[in-house]
Amino acid sequence: MRAEATSSVASAPSYLDALNSKQQEAVLHTEGPLLILAGAGTGKTRVLTTRLAYILDQQLCDYQSILAVTFTNKAANEMRERIQSLLGQSVDGMWLGTFHSLSMRILRKHAEALGYTTNFTVIDADDQLRLIKQLLKAENIDDKQIPAKMIAAVINRWKDKAKTPDRAGSSQDLNVQLYRQYQERLKILNAMDFGDLILNCLVLFQQNPAILAQYQQQFRYLMVDEYQDTNASQYLWLRLLGDGYGNLCCVGDDDQSIYGWRGAEVANILKFESDYPNATVVRLEQNYRSTNHILGAASGLIANNRDRLGKELWTQKEGGDTVLVKGTWDSESEARFVIDEVEQYQRCGHHLNSMAILVRASYQTRDFEERCLKTGIPYRVIGGLRFYERQEIKDALAYLRILVQPNDGLAFERIINVPKRGIGPTALQNMHLIARDKEISLPQAALMYAMDEGKGSGKANLRQFFEDMQRWRHMLETQDHVEVVKTLLDESGYTTMWQEDTSPDAPGRLENLKEFVNAIEEFEYLPGFLDHVSLVTDNNKQSTDDCLSLMTLHGAKGLEFDFVFLPGWEENLFPHPRSLKESGQSGLEEERRLGYVGISRAKQKATISYALRRRMPNQGWQVGMPSRFLGELPAKHVQHVQANGSESNYSTYGSFRSRPASFSEYQSQHFEIGDRVFHQKFGYGEVIDTEGEQAAVEFDLAEAKRIHISYLTKQS
After folding, report:
1. What are the b/e assignments for 627-636, b being 16+ CB within 10 Å?
2. Number of H helices, E strands in the chain
3. Please, are residues 26 and 282 in contact by the beta-carbon 8 Å criterion?
4. In the chain, which residues fall in CATH 1.10.486.10?
5. Which positions are catalytic?
6. Taken in order 545, 546, 550, 554, is the CA torsion positive or negative?
7. Distance CA 402, CA 411 (A)
8. Closest alpha carbon to 330 in 380, 371, 372
9. Is the omega angle on the peptide bond into residue 507 within 30 degrees of 0, that is, cis?
């Protein structure tokens, strides 16, 4: 019998008292499809965790009957801790995690139905590229003509769209052929890549209705966070599992959908009500993060998007500064201005951890990093090389992967000659030939090659490698897995290799290996640790030092800071020209959502800046034109200060308006000596003479020129 949740707040648990009325409505609505449209800073995580705790607290089902999906392991861990705090009990074993981790959990039980064994390996991006390069080489295709990275991107996008090789396109298409070979090779290796975790789960459900029915009956309630970031595969995954009881709750914000470039489809959240005609939509609009001016600027910007469900954020916070838009002469002076502001806030007692610089393109950070080094401001670049992406860690992981999964050919190839065992490219090529000819994995082929008594200085070392691996596997059966890992790293010669290395980074690599062993200690068994590593999206051991944060706008989603700096708001940078070229209007709207996300990260103060000149990659210095987005910010929430220090009437600031659409509009422009003007190539200047349809202009950053008035925009 289906349990019904009461709609009366009066009889609800006391922990609901901390929620506002809309948040309570979302928590108490437990039956049927529900879309919680949660604006930035409106407490969506609290609502999602409280709703989950409420369902358990009211005994509407047991915790094994709930499926809760997040996009990062960090978010899943935070949600689990909050639920346990609300309930006062452990929820270990709950189906709570990312799409990939939950799919892996299902596949670990049912992989054999797809022709895999349950101890399949999950390969990373590097291994994916190596495998594709092998396929290209076997087909005599030059990697320079058809890069492996391009093929990988095509395959990954097909998987995001839930397309198997049979549905990807014509069998005559080279990309489709390579995709098919790639999947066949993965099956021989008993391996899956990251995209396979969800795609193979879909294939499992579609080919095995009984297995799908089992999970549909198990999960009475489904909840998913960040629904606006789902791709086609994730969307179908949710729909299949949610068709059991129909209790699908999606939390998201269409205005924060900024990952279209990696497959996210904002249409998934926009069509929720058409997908579920009986759906309830609850809008969370009370913002607890930002001031009224920050919300006003962000809301005014995003209101220019056409494809959105619509909501109006508001706050009870009084006062606060207007959003500052600061013009600077060039990107170097922009960096000086921003870091000067950072130092000023620091002198006023604010911590550097409360400040962030959010850039559109990663190359923008260079000027800020140099300025920080000159001024002694400690900083961190978020999104740099992660712990599990370092060479020594990837090598160690490869050893453990081949230890746990003997047929992992990609892991084998990575470490078979690290440290050197006299196994050169020719020997490896022979092993690949055996593997393809016999249709076996590379390690199996290597063992056959090693047992051949023919010539080859590396064969004895190769035989010793397999003997050692077998001995370490036997040790795993009776000894602590952490001690086995230490033994493996020592006896394989890998630790010694770095101890004997004279490069300056060798000591750091040895320290990293020590930390690697410490990480393994947190897991009861080795396969569990390897599963964890394959799903890690960020290094949780961030520095706790007081540092200024530098990151891209994409990397800032979900974060908040007291003071946020948004540099580089110029045409040909933001909106990014690639987005406009590839996606047109939809690309422009996603760029605008990115701006909305950036502004709404700020709690106390948001500062936007642009440069009249910027050094661009491979282009040298380029004259910049302020972004069209600046003209979309409501004047009452913004203060504009030009590069020369003067304030302008923001609503009539000419350079923010789009250029006139026709020549007749230019003809209506009237110029007089002394007028301030803007030229797209030469920047700002002052009219020093006029004659007919031409004006002589003395430019701030270029020599005086006589220019047709159609190329000039008058400033107020």
Report:
1. bbbbbbbbee
2. 28, 22
3. yes
4. 387-535
5. 44-45, 225-226, 256, 601
6. positive
7. 6
8. 371
9. no
Two tokens, residue 658: 């789009």
Closest CA to 42 of 285, 386, 321, 300: 285
pLDDT, mean over the chain: 86
- pLDDT at residue 369 greater than cutoff 90: no
pTM of the model as a whole: 0.74
305: tokens are: 């998007």
Q: In this structure, what token pair is assigned to residue 318?
A: 């009084």
Q: Alpha-carbon distance 326 to 338, whole Å? A: 10
Per the CATH hierarchy, to which homologous superfamily does domain 295-383+544-648 belong?
P-loop containing nucleotide triphosphate hydrolases (3.40.50.300)
Locate 709 and state its tokens. Answer: 């008035």
- pLDDT, residue 29, reads 94
Residues of the chain with CATH 3.40.50.300: 9-108+199-286, 295-383+544-648
The pLDDT value given to residue 5: 43
User: 527: cis peptide before it, omega within 30°?
Assistant: no
> CA 313 to CA 27: how far, in whole Å?
20
Q: How many residues does the chain have?
A: 716
**What kind of architecture, by CATH, is found in domain 121-189?**
Orthogonal Bundle (1.10)
- The Cα–Cα gap between 552 and 560 comes to 13
- Note the CATH number of domain 387-535: 1.10.486.10
Query: HSE-up of 527 (CA within 13 Å, CB side)?
Result: 13
Instruction: Please tell me the predicted confidence (pLDDT) of residue 510.
Output: 82
Q: At 311, phi and psi to the nearest 5?
A: -170, 160
SS (HEC) of 268-279: HHHCHHHHCCCC
Residue that is written with structure tokens 């082929």 in the block = 445
231: Cα within 13 Å, side-chain hemisphere: 21
Nearest to 580 by CA among 619, 634, 627: 627
Element (H, E) at 608: strand 602-611
Per-residue tokens: 601: 């990260």
DSSP string over 555-582: HHTT--EEEEEE---BTTTSS-HHHHHH
Tell me the pLDDT band of 103, cut-offs 50, 70 and 90.
Answer: very high
Q: How far is CA 231 from the centre of its chain?
A: 13
**CA-to-CA separations, 478 to 105, 198, 400, 483, in angstroms, rounded:** 26, 35, 17, 11
- Using the predicted structure, report yes or no on whether residue 214 has a pLDDT greater than 90: yes
Predicted confidence (pLDDT) per residue in 502-516, tens digit: 666 777 788 778 878
Please tell me the least confidently modeled range out of 218-227, 385-394, 443-452, 600-609: 385-394
C-beta of residue 251 within 8 angstroms of C-beta of residue 293: no
Please state, for a pLDDT cut of 70, what percent of the chain lies above it. Answer: 90
pLDDT of residue 650: 46
Per DSSP, the three-state class of 24 is: helix
Query: 659-714: what CATH class?
Result: mainly beta
* Top-tier CATH class for 9-108+199-286: alpha beta
The number of beta carbons lying within 10 Å of the beta carbon of residue 49 is 24
Q: Answer for the pair 307, 586: CB distance below 8 angstroms, yes or no.
A: yes
Helix (H) / strand (E) containing 371 = helix 365-375
* 509-389-198 Cα angle (round to 5): 155
